[in-house]
Design a protein that fits this description.
The protein is α+β, with helices and mostly antiparallel strands and about 950 residues long. It is about 40% helix and about 10% strand. It has 35 helices and 27 strands. The strands form nine sheets. It has a seven-stranded mixed sheet, sandwiched between helices. Strands 3-8-9-12 form a four-stranded mixed sheet. Helix 28 runs parallel beside helix 33.
Length: about 950
């Protein structure tokens, strides 16, 4: 199944989609074909790759996070199947000038190779990327080194490691060679994580580098500061320029190469370690590699660190030499940078720049003796030392020895002779006689060999009767064990031994998986520990990464007008991962949808005037909607999709949900803690009877907790409050004001959804039709507009208002039926579904067409329909809560003057009399609150 077509990027504030021009569009592609001398068949293959949508949509599996990356080079969204290897490679080619174009998930190709049994395999293979380089084109497959090692063992003819340490795929290379192309394997050990961290840190500047304006005087002052002190640390430079220049100017200068920083070695997120130079030549002349290595020796650097520094420096010189071979005398034809590193290391040792540490003296302990010494407990070592003091008193001369002499006199001579014999034997066998005096308590008790058969039977019983989803108790499994032992005429072990084997026959995680499933066992799953320092999963500045998710609040709410119980509401939360600050939130009774996502992003822009650089979401359908992805693509926001049932990938937000429950919701009347044990609940503890909160009032209280209480409490992971961490990051890493978004009509239109096509036809005298409703504006009277397709949008919270893009601007369109005033999109869906159901019952399955006149008439007479009436109440409360979150005030709740019992007040709508009444008698219920 083909994936979604690549979503093009558009400029901020642009109403219509601009034409994206790529490097090889038009005549440039034909020139590229002629320059590489490609055959007609290869030209057709490359043309199909450029014109085809991605072969598949990345899915989170095996702990990886797919990434939707807004590529500036391609002008569209490029997908990566993993946030570690594939996304790292995508960032590398994005900043590689030799790469002209990169296409994700190209059409599959057929490989042919022999498996381990000698049979021919012809699988269809989809590579991760297809690259158009300046001098060649071909496929690239990205994999982790661990996976390549495993694949090489199971499929030795598909993945191989050559003599140079490079991974290759011979079947892919053979297919590519037939077309004059290349096929390469990109392993995870080729990633330069320092460069990756710097590209992510400067991504906000790289995206708009052509439009950033910096005063020449500011750049001149900054460069003069660096020239006066070459190699100044980035932290010192920011401190010196704090009063004169903002941090953004320094970051822009580094991104534009006005200042030189070795981005392949130093991280901008660690300014206290990063030297800054006016240019590359000054950097090479100021800190000569041998001097830098000598400085590391002065700081007691290890030999491995020194070798790594040499290899890194010579590798850089080798890359420079390949670009300008005449300017570097170090590189010679056919030289290997690692061989040069070894030669440079030998020279530095001879010149005395590096002083090798003295080789350690050989140990007297044998490997077996070392193992016994490591296994000994402190009490065992104390016992051995006591025995050594008894048999070798001349080795000690302290007060403790004088006290031991009295106790040694009481020890039998036979025991002392036995200790001396053990001492001599251990000295010759292990290299130390003290090991022979260690007590051998581990060899006491019953032997494992004697209980091997009964214990084997225990494990068989546990596999078949205990480690199952039935979740039988231990006692039942022990009964089965007794029966089998009796059948096999074996002496059964005691229950205590059986229960001990139950606890240790499997790890806690594997046992929970077998009995309760992977979700219940997830807390016991091992953490993924990186072997090397990569990039921070929380981002390296305040707006680098955000998490967006929903949760159903454990609190029962009432209607602010009637007092009727409405149930629980949903909270949609956007949190900045780096400072742990809550950016935006929204409360609604509707289940999670794209509407709640867009609402939160709208509130975030209204509050802060910008969106995060990246957002991590789960696999919910609302995060895969066209409208949500279109808004992220429009403002170049990177999307990360975390795996299902893996809350550690969104740990900051999951932790905040738990904190909000324990510190906020559980202190409110009407929380649902009592429902966790329904058999213990009573009428007095029923949260439905205790509910007093309404959605607007709860929105006010959530706003107070998030903005005044949570932000001012010290966060244990930060060592400061979230507000302080946010302000510190803006001061240290730059405010990045060029990423600001105006909360204007253009942005609001971008958050409104459209139809499935995105356009609608202007019917003369009628207008455009959106979701069964017709919309009209005066601009549609123009004869040049009639019978044309125009872009349309509508307000999801009031479908009576629509918008059409006519004459270069968005024009407001009205629905002629006043019955739909204030009707939300979700209520319109309920109306449509109910009307279709009635049409099926009356006229058959084929007569299900719905007209807007039917919808208007049906909505006027829908007072007795519980689902639609409940949705109207939910929409009214949601609008009141949204007014609070946008800075307004909540509507005062109406106090009832009539004396009505609590049960009657709660069931007034559900148990209304079923008599025939005029639908206009209940129009008061359908009216909306004016907020």
């Amino acid at each position: 199944m083909l994936g979604c077509r690549r979503r093009n990027l558009r400029r901020h504030g642009s109403g219509e989609e601009e034409t994206v021009t790529r490097p090889l569009d038009g005549i440039a592609l034909l020139t590229y074909f002629r320059r590489l001398k490609l055959s007609k068949e290869t030209q057709k293959l490359l043309t199909d790759i450029r014109n085809s949508p991605p072969s598949r949509t990345p899915r989170p599996r095996r702990g990886n996070m797919p990434v939707w990356y807004p590529s500036k080079k391609m002008g569209c969204i490029i997908k990566a199947e993993s946030h570690k290897v594939e996304f790292a490679f995508l960032l590398q080619v994005e900043h590689d000038d030799d790469v002209l174009e990169v296409w994700d998930q190209p059409p599959s190709i057929q490989l042919e190779y022999l498996d381990r049994r000698g049979r021919t395999q012809r699988p269809n293979h989809t590579a991760d990327y297809f690259l158009f380089r300046y001098g060649a084109a071909g496929w690239v497959e990205c994999k982790t080194t661990q996976e390549l090692i495993q694949q090489a063992s199971t499929r030795p003819n598909r993945y191989q490691l050559d003599e140079r340490g490079q991974w290759r795929c011979p079947p892919g290379e053979a297919f590519a060679a037939k077309h004059g192309l290349f096929y390469r394997v990109y392993a995870s050990d080729q990633i330069n994580w320092a460069a990756q961290d710097n590209w992510l840190f400067l991504e906000d500047y790289y995206q708009d580098l052509d439009h950033l304006q910096v005063a020449p005087t500011d750049v001149y002052v900054l460069c003069e500061m660096v020239r006066s002190q070459p190699g100044i640390l980035l932290s010192d430079l920011k401190l010196a320029a704090e009063d004169r220049l903002p941090t953004d100017v320094i970051n822009i200068a580094i991104a534009r190469n006005d200042l030189y920083v070795d981005l392949a070695t130093y991280r901008l997120s660690e300014p206290w370690r990063t030297p800054v130079f006016p240019d590359r030549s000054t950097a090479r002349a100021t800190v000569h590699p041998p001097d830098r290595i000598a400085n590391q020796v002065g700081t007691s650097a290890t030999l491995t660190a020194l070798a790594s520094t040499i290899v890194s420096w010579v590798g850089q010189q080798w890359q420079i030499a390949q670009a300008t071979p005449t300017s570097i005398t170090l590189a010679r034809e056919g030289s290997d940078p690692f061989a040069l590193a070894r030669c440079a290391f030998d020279v530095l040792v001879e010149e005395g720049k590096i002083i090798l540490p003295p080789s350690p003296a050989p140990s007297n302990f044998t490997p077996e003796g070392t193992a016994l010494l490591h296994q000994a407990r402190e009490v065992d070592l104390a016992t051995a030392v006591f025995g050594n003091r008894v048999i070798n008193p001349d080795q000690y001369d302290d007060e403790e020895q004088a006290g031991i002499a009295e106790r040694a006199a009481a020890i039998p001579a036979r025991t002392k002779r036995s200790w001396r014999q053990q001492y001599r034997e251990a000295e010759s066998r292990y290299g130390s006689g003290l090991i022979g005096l260690l007590p051998q308590f581990a060899h006491c008790g019953r032997k494992w060999e004697a209980d091997f058969v009964p214990r084997k039977l225990i494990h068989e019983v546990l596999e078949t009767h205990y480690d199952t989803v039935t979740r039988k108790p231990k006692r039942g499994a022990y009964g089965e064990y007794l029966k089998r032992a009796e059948e096999q005429q074996l002496t059964p072990l005691s229950p205590r031994t059986f229960y001990r084997e139950v606890e240790r026959h499997k790890t806690a995680y594997d046992q929970r998986v077998a009995r309760e499933g992977t979700r219940a066992a997830y807390p016991f799953k091992e953490y993924v520990r990186e072997q090397e320092k990569t990039v921070s999963r929380h981002g390296n500045y305040a707006w680098a990464m955000a998490h967006l998710d929903h949760t159903e609040l454990n609190l029962i709410l009432r209607d602010s007008r009637t007092g009727q119980v409405l149930g629980k509401c949903w909270l949609t939360l956007l949190i900045l991962a780096h400072p742990r600050r809550i950016a935006a939130y929204a409360l609604t009774f509707d289940p999670p949808s794209y509407r709640s996502c867009l609402m939160v992003l709208r509130l975030c822009v209204k509050r802060y005037g910008r969106l995060p650089t990246a957002i991590t979401v789960d696999g919910g359908p609302e995060f895969q909607s066209v409208y949500f992805e279109q808004l992220l693509a429009l403002y170049r926001v990177r999307k990360h999709q975390r795996p299902a049932a893996e809350p550690r990938f969104g740990s900051p937000q999951e932790r905040l949900f738990g904190t909000m429950e324990t510190e906020f919701l559980y202190h409110l009347l009407g929380n649902t803690q009592a429902t966790r044990e329904p058999r213990l609940a009573t009428r007095a503890t029923d949260p439905r009877n205790l509910a007093v909160w309404t959605l607007p009032r709860l929105a006010e209280r959530v706003q107070q907790w998030a903005d005044e209480e949570y932000e001012t409490i010290r966060h244990p992971a930060l060592g400061m409050t979230p507000r302080q961490a946010y302000e510190l990051s803006l001061k240290r890493d730059g405010e990045r004001l060029h990423k600001s978004i105006e909360y204007d009509d253009t942005f609001l239109k971008a958050t409104y959804p459209s139809t499935r096509k995105g356009t609608a036809k202007v019917e003369p005298g009628v207008g455009v039709r959106i979701n069964y409703l017709d919309y009209w504006c005066e601009a549609m009277r123009d004869a040049t507009v009639e019978n044309t397709q125009v872009k349309v949008r509508y307000d999801p919270f009031d479908v009576s208002v629509g918008f059409a893009y006519i004459g270069g601007i968005w024009r407001k369109c009205d629905c002629p039926y006043s019955e739909f005033a204030g009707c939300s999109e979700r209520e319109l869906q309920h109306l449509t579904e109910e009307l279709r159901r009635r049409n099926r019952l009356q006229a058959g399955r084929e007569h299900t067409e719905v007209t807007q006149k039917q919808l208007a008439t049906f909505r006027r007479e829908n007072a007795d329909i519980e689902t639609i009436l409940r949705q109207q109440r939910h929409d009214r409360e949601t609008r009141a809560a949204l007014t609070v979150l946008e800075g307004g005030k909540a509507v005062k709740e109406v106090e009832k003057k009539q004396e009505i019992t609590e049960v009657t007040s709660r069931e007034c709508a559900d148990e209304a009399p079923k008599t025939q009444a005029s639908p206009y008698d209940k129009l008061l219920v359908l009216k909306r609150i004016e907020l």
